[in-house]
Amino acid sequence: MKKEKGLLIVLSGPAGVGKGTVCNALRQEETEIQYSVSATTRSPRAGEVDGVNYFFKSREEFEKMIEQDELLEWAEYVGNYYGTPIDYVRETMNNGQDIILEIEVQGALKVRDKFPDGVFIFLMPPSLAELRSRIVGRGTETEDVINQRMTVAKEEIDMMKKYDYVVENDEVHLAVERIKSIVTAEHCRRERLIEKYKELVEVD
Ligand code: 5GP
Fold first, then answer.
1. What is the pLDDT of residues 99-114, one digit of tens each?
2. What's the gap in Å between 5 CA and the centre of ligand 1?
3. What is the dihedral angle through the alpha carbons of 182, 15, 71, 180, rounded to the nearest 10 degrees?
Protein backbone atom coordinates (compact mmCIF):
# COMPACT_ATOMS: atom_id res chain seq x y z
CA MET A 1 0.00 0.00 0.00
CA LYS A 2 1.25 3.45 -0.86
CA LYS A 3 2.59 5.23 2.20
CA GLU A 4 0.64 8.32 3.16
CA LYS A 5 2.69 11.50 2.98
CA GLY A 6 3.23 13.40 6.21
CA LEU A 7 1.41 16.66 6.81
CA LEU A 8 3.10 20.01 6.43
CA ILE A 9 1.80 22.09 9.33
CA VAL A 10 2.49 25.80 9.47
CA LEU A 11 2.09 27.54 12.81
CA SER A 12 2.17 31.27 12.35
CA GLY A 13 0.83 34.46 13.85
CA PRO A 14 1.94 37.90 15.01
CA ALA A 15 5.20 38.62 16.80
CA GLY A 16 5.01 37.87 20.50
CA VAL A 17 1.84 35.78 20.33
CA GLY A 18 3.75 32.83 21.74
CA LYS A 19 4.41 30.67 18.68
CA GLY A 20 7.73 29.56 20.14
CA THR A 21 6.25 28.78 23.56
CA VAL A 22 3.33 26.84 22.08
CA CYS A 23 5.63 24.97 19.71
CA ASN A 24 7.98 24.06 22.57
CA ALA A 25 5.05 22.88 24.69
CA LEU A 26 3.85 20.73 21.78
CA ARG A 27 7.37 19.34 21.55
CA GLN A 28 7.19 18.15 25.16
CA GLU A 29 4.18 16.01 24.36
CA GLU A 30 4.31 12.48 23.02
CA THR A 31 3.42 13.23 19.43
CA GLU A 32 4.95 11.95 16.23
CA ILE A 33 5.33 15.47 14.87
CA GLN A 34 8.79 16.55 13.69
CA TYR A 35 10.06 20.12 13.98
CA SER A 36 11.77 22.18 11.32
CA VAL A 37 14.83 24.13 12.53
CA SER A 38 15.10 27.49 10.75
CA ALA A 39 18.18 29.37 9.66
CA THR A 40 18.56 32.97 10.85
CA THR A 41 21.05 35.84 10.83
CA ARG A 42 19.95 37.14 14.24
CA SER A 43 22.28 36.56 17.20
CA PRO A 44 21.50 33.72 19.59
CA ARG A 45 19.61 34.67 22.77
CA ALA A 46 20.81 33.31 26.11
CA GLY A 47 20.33 29.55 26.20
CA GLU A 48 19.76 29.13 22.47
CA VAL A 49 21.77 26.38 20.84
CA ASP A 50 22.95 26.28 17.22
CA GLY A 51 21.22 23.47 15.34
CA VAL A 52 18.51 23.11 18.01
CA ASN A 53 16.74 26.48 18.17
CA TYR A 54 18.12 27.82 14.90
CA PHE A 55 21.01 27.39 12.53
CA PHE A 56 22.77 30.70 13.21
CA LYS A 57 24.25 32.11 9.99
CA SER A 58 26.08 35.21 8.77
CA ARG A 59 24.28 37.34 6.17
CA GLU A 60 26.71 36.04 3.57
CA GLU A 61 26.01 32.41 4.44
CA PHE A 62 22.28 33.04 4.41
CA GLU A 63 22.37 34.77 1.03
CA LYS A 64 24.27 31.78 -0.33
CA MET A 65 21.48 29.49 0.90
CA ILE A 66 18.96 31.66 -0.97
CA GLU A 67 21.06 31.60 -4.15
CA GLN A 68 21.45 27.83 -4.00
CA ASP A 69 17.71 27.35 -3.56
CA GLU A 70 18.13 25.61 -0.20
CA LEU A 71 15.19 27.38 1.44
CA LEU A 72 11.51 26.53 1.16
CA GLU A 73 10.77 30.14 2.11
CA TRP A 74 12.58 33.02 3.71
CA ALA A 75 11.71 36.47 4.97
CA GLU A 76 13.47 39.54 6.24
CA TYR A 77 11.98 40.32 9.61
CA VAL A 78 12.97 43.30 11.80
CA GLY A 79 16.39 43.53 10.15
CA ASN A 80 17.27 39.84 10.04
CA TYR A 81 16.81 36.95 7.66
CA TYR A 82 14.83 33.88 8.69
CA GLY A 83 14.27 30.84 6.47
CA THR A 84 13.27 27.18 6.36
CA PRO A 85 15.80 24.67 4.97
CA ILE A 86 13.84 22.64 2.41
CA ASP A 87 15.64 19.27 2.45
CA TYR A 88 14.59 18.26 5.96
CA VAL A 89 10.98 19.23 5.26
CA ARG A 90 10.84 17.13 2.07
CA GLU A 91 12.56 14.09 3.62
CA THR A 92 10.29 14.13 6.66
CA MET A 93 7.09 14.33 4.62
CA ASN A 94 8.28 11.64 2.22
CA ASN A 95 8.94 9.39 5.22
CA GLY A 96 5.28 9.74 6.13
CA GLN A 97 5.98 11.93 9.16
CA ASP A 98 4.27 15.22 9.95
CA ILE A 99 6.41 18.32 10.21
CA ILE A 100 5.64 21.66 11.80
CA LEU A 101 7.10 25.01 10.77
CA GLU A 102 6.92 27.86 13.28
CA ILE A 103 7.35 30.94 11.11
CA GLU A 104 6.13 34.52 10.67
CA VAL A 105 3.30 35.39 8.31
CA GLN A 106 5.16 36.56 5.16
CA GLY A 107 6.99 33.24 5.03
CA ALA A 108 3.80 31.30 5.77
CA LEU A 109 2.08 32.80 2.72
CA LYS A 110 5.00 31.75 0.53
CA VAL A 111 4.71 28.19 1.83
CA ARG A 112 1.02 28.24 0.91
CA ASP A 113 1.98 28.92 -2.74
CA LYS A 114 4.33 25.92 -2.81
CA PHE A 115 2.33 23.53 -0.62
CA PRO A 116 -1.38 24.28 -1.05
CA ASP A 117 -2.12 20.99 0.82
CA GLY A 118 -0.42 22.31 3.94
CA VAL A 119 -2.33 22.92 7.16
CA PHE A 120 -2.15 26.61 8.03
CA ILE A 121 -2.77 27.50 11.65
CA PHE A 122 -2.92 31.10 12.87
CA LEU A 123 -2.13 31.65 16.53
CA MET A 124 -4.23 34.54 17.81
CA PRO A 125 -3.42 36.73 20.83
CA PRO A 126 -6.31 37.19 23.30
CA SER A 127 -5.86 41.01 22.88
CA LEU A 128 -3.42 43.65 21.61
CA ALA A 129 -2.66 44.78 25.19
CA GLU A 130 -1.79 41.21 26.09
CA LEU A 131 0.42 40.97 23.01
CA ARG A 132 2.35 44.11 23.95
CA SER A 133 2.87 42.95 27.49
CA ARG A 134 4.22 39.63 26.18
CA ILE A 135 6.69 41.40 23.89
CA VAL A 136 7.80 43.69 26.75
CA GLY A 137 7.78 40.80 29.22
CA ARG A 138 10.31 38.87 27.21
CA GLY A 139 12.71 41.65 28.27
CA THR A 140 15.20 41.00 25.51
CA GLU A 141 14.22 43.82 23.16
CA THR A 142 14.81 47.59 23.21
CA GLU A 143 11.83 50.04 23.21
CA ASP A 144 12.50 50.74 19.55
CA VAL A 145 12.31 47.08 18.60
CA ILE A 146 9.16 46.63 20.72
CA ASN A 147 7.40 49.44 18.84
CA GLN A 148 8.51 48.07 15.49
CA ARG A 149 7.23 44.65 16.49
CA MET A 150 3.83 46.05 17.56
CA THR A 151 3.38 47.85 14.22
CA VAL A 152 4.24 44.68 12.35
CA ALA A 153 1.97 42.65 14.66
CA LYS A 154 -1.13 44.72 13.83
CA GLU A 155 -0.58 44.19 10.11
CA GLU A 156 0.07 40.52 10.75
CA ILE A 157 -3.19 39.97 12.64
CA ASP A 158 -5.04 41.01 9.51
CA MET A 159 -3.47 38.01 7.72
CA MET A 160 -5.65 35.70 9.81
CA LYS A 161 -8.10 35.69 6.86
CA LYS A 162 -5.67 33.61 4.83
CA TYR A 163 -5.42 30.65 7.22
CA ASP A 164 -7.34 27.39 7.59
CA TYR A 165 -7.54 27.45 11.38
CA VAL A 166 -7.38 30.09 14.11
CA VAL A 167 -6.19 29.04 17.56
CA GLU A 168 -6.39 31.51 20.41
CA ASN A 169 -3.37 31.42 22.68
CA ASP A 170 -5.23 32.22 25.88
CA GLU A 171 -3.47 29.40 27.71
CA VAL A 172 -0.60 27.43 26.29
CA HIS A 173 -1.91 23.97 27.22
CA LEU A 174 -5.29 24.77 25.61
CA ALA A 175 -3.63 26.03 22.43
CA VAL A 176 -1.56 22.82 22.31
CA GLU A 177 -4.69 20.66 22.68
CA ARG A 178 -6.41 22.57 19.87
CA ILE A 179 -3.44 22.09 17.55
CA LYS A 180 -3.29 18.36 18.31
CA SER A 181 -7.01 18.08 17.51
CA ILE A 182 -6.51 19.89 14.21
CA VAL A 183 -3.71 17.50 13.24
CA THR A 184 -5.87 14.48 14.10
CA ALA A 185 -8.78 15.87 12.09
CA GLU A 186 -6.56 16.66 9.10
CA HIS A 187 -5.41 13.03 9.01
CA CYS A 188 -9.06 12.00 8.71
CA ARG A 189 -9.85 14.25 5.76
CA ARG A 190 -11.41 12.35 2.88
CA GLU A 191 -9.10 13.93 0.28
CA ARG A 192 -6.04 12.63 2.13
CA LEU A 193 -7.46 9.09 2.47
CA ILE A 194 -9.00 8.45 -0.92
CA GLU A 195 -5.74 6.97 -2.24
CA LYS A 196 -5.43 4.63 0.76
CA TYR A 197 -8.95 3.23 0.30
CA LYS A 198 -9.07 3.23 -3.47
CA GLU A 199 -9.60 -0.55 -3.62
CA LEU A 200 -12.71 -0.22 -1.51
CA VAL A 201 -14.21 2.98 -2.81
CA GLU A 202 -15.17 3.86 -6.36
CA VAL A 203 -13.61 7.17 -7.30
CA ASP A 204 -15.58 9.23 -9.79
P1 5GP B 1 12.62 35.32 16.96
O2 5GP B 1 13.70 36.28 16.57
O3 5GP B 1 11.74 35.88 18.04
O4 5GP B 1 13.14 33.94 17.26
O5 5GP B 1 11.68 35.13 15.67
C6 5GP B 1 11.14 36.22 15.03
C7 5GP B 1 10.07 35.74 14.07
O8 5GP B 1 10.64 34.96 13.02
C9 5GP B 1 9.02 34.85 14.73
O10 5GP B 1 7.75 35.31 14.31
C11 5GP B 1 9.32 33.47 14.17
O12 5GP B 1 8.14 32.68 14.07
C13 5GP B 1 9.84 33.83 12.79
N14 5GP B 1 10.62 32.76 12.18
C15 5GP B 1 11.40 31.83 12.76
N16 5GP B 1 11.91 31.02 11.84
C17 5GP B 1 11.44 31.41 10.64
C18 5GP B 1 11.59 30.94 9.29
O19 5GP B 1 12.27 29.97 8.99
N20 5GP B 1 10.94 31.63 8.32
C21 5GP B 1 10.16 32.70 8.58
N22 5GP B 1 9.55 33.28 7.56
N23 5GP B 1 9.99 33.16 9.83
C24 5GP B 1 10.62 32.54 10.85
1. 999 999 999 999 999 9
2. 25
3. -10
